[in-house]
Write the structure tokens for this entry.
Amino acid sequence: MSCTGYSIHKCVYDVYGLSLNVVTDLKPVAQEIDSVLAPFLFVSKKPAKTYEVVISRAEVPKEITCPRGMRQFWAGTSRDGTRMVFWTGEGVHQLDILGAVSTFINIPSRCAKITVTEGKEWYAANMPLLLVLSEFLRTIGHHVIHAASLVCDKKGEKNGIIIAGGSGRGKTTTALAFSGAGMKLLADDMTFVANAPSNGLVIWGLQKPCKVHRKTLEMLKWLENLPQRPVIGSDEVLVDMSKHFGGACQIRVKPKVLIFLDDRNMKEHRINPLSKIDAIKRLAGENVRALDSNARGATGETFRMLGTLVGRCDCYLLSAGPDVADIHKIFTSLLR
């Protein structure tokens, strides 16, 4: 099955058992969605849990207004300085990027609506769509973590490597340095963790352009040969890694190593073992912003998945030195 024409874009994607029906009449949005979800175009007759997202154009408010029956969960700014607020209620969520896009998610009804202001269409196919997909996937046991991930093939065995750390720590740069050394990139900032019936705990990612700071292009010269386009309002570019995925976007692999990024230093790469207790504290602090007092509901399920992930991995703390391009060399001994 393939997508229809772009006058009205209707397409169904089967993402590991979740059937996502996307409807939009916005051509730029449709094209961006295809670039990320094309590997999951629905081709099987196997029944799947069906969800729907409708994306349309309308004027989005520029002022903060709390939706009825919701409360503010978090607030911040996007990379170009635009104000963002995330609201939550009983079974519903809403993400407002003021003056640009509003995303409403109704989990019990399995539907979402993304409304985008004219001229801001590029927003809709990025954070809002990925948020919708993440919330829907969590209902079938796939939990997203803020981390990069790769596949390392050693002696015919595929091992998953996860790189975690707060914003600005260098997850994308470190992951791309590994990718340049021959590892397959699964994700540069959103890694999904799930229990597969046949394989146990696995990780996987979505194929999408990587946001790269111009300093990263200077450190990893090979990136300059890849297709690039600017990111509005920042000193970053989007680098198209699709040809370097090598089908990795459809690979699910067992996690082996979990690396947390510490502050960089000006001498040499340093890596040290990290205790399981410290690892779960770091991972939960970076991925679970508000825990239920009794670890209940969807947040509790995510927290328990983080604990399982840490238990299955060898955990390390890494402080990168000046020459990031050769950082992969210190990991040869970790994947025994």
The longest strand covers residues 49-57. The first helix runs from residue 27 to 37.
